[in-house]
Design a protein that fits this description.
Shape of chain B: globular
Shape of chain A: globular
Strand content of chain A: 25-35%
Distance between the termini of chain B: 30 Å
CATH architecture of chain B: 3-Layer(bab) Sandwich
GO biological process, one term (chain B): tRNA processing
Protein name (chain B): Archease
Pfam family, one (chain B): Archease
Number of domains of chain B: 1
GO molecular function (chain B): metal ion binding
Number of domains of chain A: 1
Oligomer: heterodimer
CATH class of chain A: Alpha Beta
Number of strands of chain B: 8
CATH superfamily of chain A: tRNA-splicing ligase RtcB
CATH topology of chain A: tRNA-splicing ligase RtcB
CATH architecture of chain A: Alpha-Beta Complex
Largest sheet of chain A: 8 strands, mixed
Family (chain B): Belongs to the archease family.
CATH superfamily of chain B: Archease domain
Radius of gyration of chain A: 21 Å
Number of helices of chain A: 14
Largest sheet of chain B: 5 strands, antiparallel
Order of helices and strands of chain B: EEHEHEEHEEE
Chain lengths: ~475, ~150
């Protein structure tokens, strides 16, 4: 992106002043190098988002922003239903409630690392991954509806999770307002045998070591210490969420003229929040959120079974589970006025500051863990939400490194086997059903995670707590 | 068993039918060419399959009928590809051959393939949804039809 097209307000804040149909500003949080590496389509898409009815505050893009569907990935926008605000399926994304959860073990890396090959193999066998894999659970219609209402709570009730996990999951493990009746038969059909599966693409399960601590007090509050083994799980609502996103995107596109909506981009298909279609989408989307929360709870359960079999002290406690493709009704102050808003986060993580009433009591003194995924080589970060994020981005931060090159280019440049061998020589075992999948997800296909996280910190969106480095990875 | 005819033509020459994929930041574009719109749709479906597996390695052991209806040809293309994705996802099938007929906004298609075998097919990224991004159905000046869109993986 050409920085001269933006107005720089400070080191990490770049503004797109409102022009044409834009109702609010666009704001991109990134340093100059990240802006230079960012696709210009992020600017175009953010400007389009800023033109949607009922948008308030700024349309925001995160340091890891890249070209998405209508919304840029890494986009945040809030809409006021009372001001004619809209709900946008592309602003949530196809993989509804895709997110990350972090499990903390009692093990030291010195103890677990030597068994990384065996561990990766056991996890690969224990957690279904990739196209064509099936979970051990088959849902009938009654179970499906219960899951769509109950989310992770349903999984716990069925014995596929732990009650103590629930306070550490957004929405207490189940999002209210789900409408299973708004979920189509096709979506249900896609999910029937997919519970407890990791999926493919950029989804992963990684066993990692805490290798760096940036904030000792918060890290201690989170139970993180240098050398500790943790497990990161990144996946979403699987086929069900995609089917809901696909079907409602189509319906909103065809219904837009009837709502008097002029769409600058088909993928920005949306509907008034206060419409039958908007209500139905929100109900189906919330059901998909519950599907994702249940899925991650079950994947964690399968992971725990492997750890319990392999290690005497293999207990895994949930630090936090947070989604980065959602729309949630939240209360925010805009221009001095507290308003109830529908906050879309597409590839952006909610990042609540310490003291927020929505945080579980034991995390409230510190702030919300913000879980940032990286790549097979560089690992992940744990950040913490800040009060500045509330003012700057409706309490949101980045969600990952963001891709630096297409899957095409990655395939042209890298070989899956070559990457596996290289990472093995660096002490990282990668298991996947597809070497081509590994090549497409090559670590060098992603932006510099350190730069993204540092830009988020400099912009005040979140603060670094710990860095996590992988030694056993399962990729779908 | 129906043989899967060799329809693969990456970077097809003008006038030929064929398919290819094209780059997109995080996902992947699929594109089909053909002498008719229907043929371009069938080729786009092979490009879709290629996101996950090599279509030439798929045996055509069983068939599925797929029907869609839309006045807008772009919407019809996205519907067609999404219907195939549902069969892949829910039916655990992968396809190597497609036949399409289109008349008055109605598409009647057939897909032939086999159950996904992770060991034999080594599936890569799972196509999860055809989108309206870069979506286009058009007859090019030289007469060849093109049908394309980006697929979320």
């Amino acid at each position: 992106m050409d920085p001269s097209l933006l107005k720089r307000e400070d080191r990490c804040r770049w503004v797109i002043p409102p022009t044409g149909a834009m109702r609010v500003r666009g704001v991109i949080y990134a340093d100059r190098d990240l802006i230079l590496g960012m696709d210009d389509k992020v600017r175009v898409q953010l400007s389009n988002v800023a033109s949607l009815p009922g948008i308030v505050g700024d349309a925001v893009a995160m340091p890891d922003a890249h070209w998405g569907y209508g919304f840029p990935i890494g986009g945040v926008a809030a809409f006021d239903a009372d001001a004619g605000g809209v709900i946008c399926a592309g602003g949530v994304g196809f993989d509804i409630s895709c997110g990350v959860r972090l499990l903390v073990s009692e093990l030291s890396a010195a103890h677990a690392r030597p068994r990384r090959g065996e561990l990766a193999e056991a996890l690969f066998r224990g957690v279904p991954a990739g196209l064509g894999s099936e979970g051990a659970i088959t849902l009938d219609d009654i179970d499906m509806t219960a899951m769509l209402n109950g989310g992770a709570r349903w999984a716990v009730e069925r014995g596929w999770g732990r009650p103590e996990d629930l306070p550490r999951i957004e929405e207490g493990g189940a999002m209210g307002g789900a409408m299973p009746e708004a979920v189509s038969e096709q979506a249900r059909r896609r999910q029937r045998r997919e519970m407890g599966t990791l999926g493919s693409g950029n989804h992963y399960l990684e066993v990692q070591e805490v290798t760096e601590i940036f904030d000792e007090a918060v890290a201690a509050g989170y139970g993180l210490e240098r050398g500790r083994v943790v497990v990161s799980i990144h996946c979403g609502s699987r086929g069900l969420g995609h089917q809901i996103g696909t079907e409602f995107m189509r319906e909103m596109l065809l219904a837009a003229p009837g709502f008097g909506l002029h769409l600058p981009d088909r993928e920005l298909a949306c509907a008034p929040i206060r419409s039958e279609l908007g209500t139905r989408y929100l109900g189906a989307m919330r059901a998909a959120v519950n599907c994702a929360l249940a899925n991650r709870e079950i994947v964690a359960h399968l992971t725990r079974q492997v750890f319990a079999r392999m290690f005497e002290r293999g207990r895994l406690s949930l630090l936090f589970d947070v989604s980065h493709n959602t729309c949630k009704v939240e209360s925010h102050v805009v221009a001095g006025e507290r308003r109830r808003l529908h906050v879309h986060r597409k590839g952006a993580t909610r990042a609540l500051a310490g003291g927020h009433p929505d945080l579980p009591e034991d995390l409230r003194p510190y702030g919300q863990p913000v879980l940032i995924g990286g790549s097979m080589a560089v690992g992940s970060y744990v950040l913490v939400g800040t009060p500045e994020a509330e003012r700057a981005a409706f309490a949101s931060a980045c969600h990952g490194a963001g891709r630096a090159m297409s899957r095409h280019e990655a395939l042209r440049r890298f070989g899956g086997r070559q990457i596996q061998d290289h990472l093995a020589s660096e002490g990282i075992v990668v298991k996947s059903p597809s070497t081509r999948g590994i090549a497409e997800e090559a670590p060098d296909a992603y932006k510099n995670l350190d730069a993204v996280v540092l830009a988020a910190e400099m912009a005040g969106l979140a603060r670094r707590v710990a860095r996590l480095s992988p030694f056993a990875c399962v990729k779908g | 068993m129906l043989p899967c005819s060799p329809q693969h033509a990456s970077q097809p020459a003008v006038g030929q039918s064929g398919w290819e994929t094209f780059p997109h930041d995080a996902d992947i574009g699929v594109r089909g060419y053909g002498a008719t719109c229907a043929e371009a749709f069938a080729m786009a479906a092979l490009a879709l399959v290629s996101v996950a597996v090599d279509p030439e390695g798929v045996r055509c052991l069983e068939g599925r009928k797929i029907a869609c209806q839309a006045d807008d040809p772009v919407v019809l293309l996205v519907d067609w590809l999404n219907a195939i994705i549902v069969e892949i996802s829910a039916g655990r099938l992968i396809f190597g051959r497609f036949r399409v007929a289109i008349q008055d906004g109605r598409l009647d298609g057939e897909a032939w393939g086999e159950p996904i075998d992770i060991v034999r097919h080594h599936p890569a990224a799972e196509p999860k949804g055809a989108t309206f991004t870069e979506a286009r159905v058009a007859r090019e000046p030289e007469g060849r039809w093109v049908a394309q869109c980006v697929v979320d993986v």
